[in-house]
Amino acid sequence: MSLVEIKGLSIRFGSLHNPIHAVRRVDLSIERGTIHGLIGESGCGKTISGMALLGLLPQSARVSADAFRFDGLNLLDVAKSLRGRRIAMISQDPAAALNPVLRIGRQMDDVLKSHSGLPRFQRRAAAEELLAATGLADPRRVLKSYAHQLSGGMQQRVVIAQALATGADFIIADEPTTALDVTVGAQVLALLKRLVQERALTVLMITHDMDVVAECCDSATVLYAGHTVEAGRTDELLAAPRHPYTQALLAALPDAVAKGERLASIEGHIPSPFAVIEGCPFAPRCASAMAVCRQAKPPERDDGNHCWTCHLEPHHG
Amino acid sequence: MHLMRYLLRRLVLSVFVVLGVTLLVFVVAQVVPSDPAALYAGPRPTAEQIETARKVLALDAPLHERFFSFAARMATGEFGVSYKTRRLIADDLSVFLPATLELAVFSTVLALLIGVPAGVLTAAGRGGLLDRLGSLGSIAAVAMPTFFLAMLLQAFFAQWLGILPLSGRLSKEFAVLAPLPSATGFNLVDSLLAGRPAAFFDTLSHLVLPALTLASYPAGVAMRLTRSAMIEILQRRHIVAARALGLSGSRILFGHALPNAIGPALTVVGLSFAYALTGAVLVEIIFAWPGLGRYVSEAILSKDFPVIAAATLVVTICYVAMNLLIDLAQAIFDPRVAL
């Protein structure tokens, strides 16, 4: 059984008559012990889906789903009690995610105090151990530091150590490398990969960067305008994308075009979150759109290890 | 290390503040249209008496000499005698200053203990019933005239419930029958030093009403400032991150958000401490509190300049010391302040 099983998740804000659709129809299935990518442009509902998993949506959000399960438990009921116990988060900008006026030691200790029940001196040892496990060279000095005294890479390692300190087995990493420079980002990804293996973690990697997916994700889900449009194993997804949006995304990568040529881009804009979408959400920007695409919801298609939603008949070969 | 350097810098600045106030007090005493010699000589003096007074006070010496001797006397605590009562000002101050400081410090602590948690809780329950009640309370606390609040408190706690004394600083049995030894002048401290808990609680019960009256304004302001700062901080990503890590609500509010949000409240309460030192005349009168405010206002009415000068300097020093404490507290809550 998958660790996370989401079917038809929808999250709306605002009035009942004129709602803002943050997430329209997201399906997401994550296997234990894997890193699963959640890809999409900004505004497609990646982060807010992650917040829903943590039970951290604002009161005004209206959530509904056909299935919204974590380890067999209905998250609509228990998200708050799992938060920080089995589900933790690594957020985008580590400088903003650490409290500026508290020492790292205090922040680590607060997490351990909330979850471990260890006495004080053991918590200190545990904190040092966790920081060392994330590759920080001098844990003692880091514990005494404030966030502004650490580099971005060190801050992100501290944030990861905090997530580990909760003892959670599922970690939502929201663009963990966006705020870091490329080499440090690569180190952080390598660290996450190692931790997943060593500690039997499962990670949801929220990102807009196909390179991140290619580098560390076992499988991935592509979102467009609050819809899951395609999902599957990473190698399948990258080698043989089925949905025109995934194809366009991959074509827009810099290394997909020869040197000196213009980069490919996707014309048009994502639909407004106020819009009512009748057919396929990608139809207005799709090169192979047909009349039916604008009128009817696309069918779900599956070729065994890869599923997508599109009106186009899959062509084999 | 940062902290020590920061405090030293503040300390040096404070010395300049005290020097500046000394100069200012001296200059003001020179330009006020009244003759110190005539005042010193007593009521209806003869020309001869005024002349003698002029010699005693060395008023004919050049200005800079007089300033330096004035500054030297102030520095050594030789404040001289009051023109009006002929009493040693240092003796008067040693009675009135501790009484005032005790009240001011107590009310400042009270303002922080009421205002800051109230601000935190109303921010946490923003828009709810608690928030609305808190807003109402803080507006009332700020807007209520001191004398009116004082009378309300007296009527309620002293008259109606009869659980707190109406006025004064000590009950008769401790003030007259078995007087406290005056080691520091602070009754709370003296009673503890003398090992007399009954006197300690008597002092405390006399402090509560005047301190509440004085604390009402700064507590109301501190609450508003803490509330708005907290509302801003609670949106920050590190608070969301702390929630995502499963920390408890109260630990997030008081342990993680409050240290970021307490700065403005500390500043305002520190400022109101200065007000409580000499501006609390009404409170002192209503509660028959033998404090500095009343002493100084009487001196001002009779142009008793040595008293005014001495009190001004002493208050300046207390205030500067309080500000140093506040700076220290700010730096402890937010280490970036000391950078």
TrEMBL record, chain A:
The cross-references to Pfam families, in alphabetical order and at most eight, read: ABC_tran, oligo_HPY
Identify the residues that the record assigns to the ABC transporter domain, covering every copy: 6-250
Q: Name one GO molecular function term.
A: ATP hydrolysis activity
Q: Which domain of life is it from?
A: Bacteria
What the entry lists under InterPro entries is as follows: AAA+_ATPase (IPR003593), ABC_Ni/Peptide_Import (IPR050388), ABC_transporter-like_ATP-bd (IPR003439), ABC_transporter-like_CS (IPR017871), Oligopep_ABC_C (IPR013563), P-loop_NTPase (IPR027417)
Which SMART domains does the record cross-reference, listed alphabetically?
Answer: AAA (SM00382)
One GO cellular component term, please give it.
Answer: plasma membrane
Give GO terms for biological process. Answer: amino acid transport; peptide transport; transmembrane transport
**Annotated compartments:** Cell inner membrane
Q: Which UniProt keywords apply?
A: Amino-acid transport, ATP-binding, Cell membrane, Membrane, Nucleotide-binding, Transport
Topology term for the membrane: Peripheral membrane protein
Where would you say this protein principally sits, based on its record? membrane
UniProt lists the family membership as follows: Belongs to the ABC transporter superfamily.
This molecule's function is given as: Probably part of a binding-protein-dependent transport system y4tOPQRS for a peptide. Probably responsible for energy coupling to the transport system.
Q: What is this protein called?
A: ABC transporter ATP-binding protein
Organism for this UniProt entry: Ensifer oleiphilus
From TrEMBL, chain B:
What topology does it adopt in the membrane? Multi-pass membrane protein
Q: Which UniProt keywords apply?
A: Cell membrane, Membrane, Transmembrane, Transmembrane helix, Transport
Q: What are the residue boundaries of the ABC transmembrane type-1 domain, all occurrences included?
A: 97-326
GO CC annotations, alphabetized: plasma membrane
- Cellular compartments annotated: Cell membrane
List the InterPro entries. Answer: BPD_transp_1_N (IPR045621), MetI-like (IPR000515), MetI-like_sf (IPR035906)
Q: Name one Pfam family in it.
A: BPD_transp_1
- Where does the chain cross the membrane? 103-124, 136-161, 198-219, 265-293, 305-326
What are the BP-aspect GO terms? transmembrane transport
Give the UniProt family note: Belongs to the binding-protein-dependent transport system permease family.
Q: What is this protein called?
A: ABC transporter permease
